[in-house]
Amino acid sequence: MSSDLHPSQLHQHLQMYTCAKWSFWGSLAVSCGLLLLGASQKPDSKPWLLGASVGVLEVGRRHRQTAKLLQESLGDIDRASRLNYQALVKSQTQPTAQLAVTVGAVDVNWKPENLITDPVEYIQKKQKHVALVGGTGDGKSTFTQYLSSKIGGRVVVYDSDAKPDDWAWLSPQDVIGRKGNFKAIDTAMGNDLKTLEELVELRGEGGDNAIAGRERFLVAEEFPVLVDECDHPANWIKRHAKRGRRYKQFVCALAQNDTAENFGLEGDKGTLYSCFVLVRLGQFGRDYARTKLKDPQLEQWLKAGGKKRFMVDDCPCELDLSNWGAGSMVQPETSGGGNEEVQSQPTAINEFEQFIFDWGQQHPGEVLKARILVQASRLFEGMQPDEVRIIFASMADKGLGEVEGNGDRLGWRWSK
Known about the structure:
Number of domains: 3
Largest sheet: 8 strands, mixed
Strand order of the largest sheet: 3-2-4-5-1-6-7-8
CATH topology of the largest domain: Rossmann fold
Radius of gyration: 38 Å
CATH superfamily of the largest domain: P-loop containing nucleotide triphosphate hydrolases
CATH architecture of the largest domain: 3-Layer(aba) Sandwich
Mean pLDDT: 78
Order of helices and strands: HHHHEHEEHEHHEHEHHEEEEHEHHEE
Distance between the termini: 90 Å
Strand content: 5-15%
């Protein structure tokens, strides 16, 4: 194609070429028609028809010549047509392309209008379960441990890959499935379903007061693996999704994809979105901002913040957990008038430890025994004394008070 032809003239030249070409073929057809008509007419009208046929043919010849000249200026017609189409597409999409370039450099001071900084408050306000989505290294476990320490209720964790120091702030019997013990997970989830039925009966007989103190927060790590390895998880999550909230049995399920199938809800996507708050970490949050919310600026904002920025439903969230850890629960403080150290209340303890801790501060110097504790609160109803003494020892190991005695005589008391 000639380099003298500007792209803005391309479309016009193509239209002229098409008109000239079809005009030539039309003139040829009309000329032939006039000749055929003249053959069947009277001799005195034949000269007129012949002259008209020659005139039309001449017009066609000139149009053909014009088409040849246009073809020379356009060169390869197929290539010219493609270039014309590309120019049209570019003219239609150029504003979007310019927008993408503009958004590329995000203002460091820009913040989303619906930004939240307390996902726990958001989740508790919604009164929904939690579906946590993230890839390897996105911080799923850290966020889950933070969430479970803040959400309230007895925390029970199903984690077949838990390391010895994972969930150290929980009682050992509340971390189920270590070392790939899927049988223990399946059995416990089956018991959860029975517990849910018991709570339904209790509430039906005595109202909400009958189930007070039975709140639980159930964490299922890598839920698709549990579905593959166990029998109960699919039914477990469906039953809790639809009925658990009313009986204060909340679920947090983790997966590496936000499809309903990954949460054991195959063919029931509506349950996932209506009963769960979806927390999307890392690339999953950025993809959601780009593809679902159509917000490239939000995508760039999430990317700039690394692990501390993610999506909670349609709301961007900023929460820095880089310095958070379950091991830093005790924070000694110095009083203003002297050097005496006062042990503050831990920032991440479960409901059992919280009750014991509060009792100790209300009864300084007194030794708390497992038998007394089981009788003092329905929270410990059904718990064996040995299990209570394990909690005593665990709290002492963390620096929360101290134990006294051994074996079945072991007790706990609060100390500064």
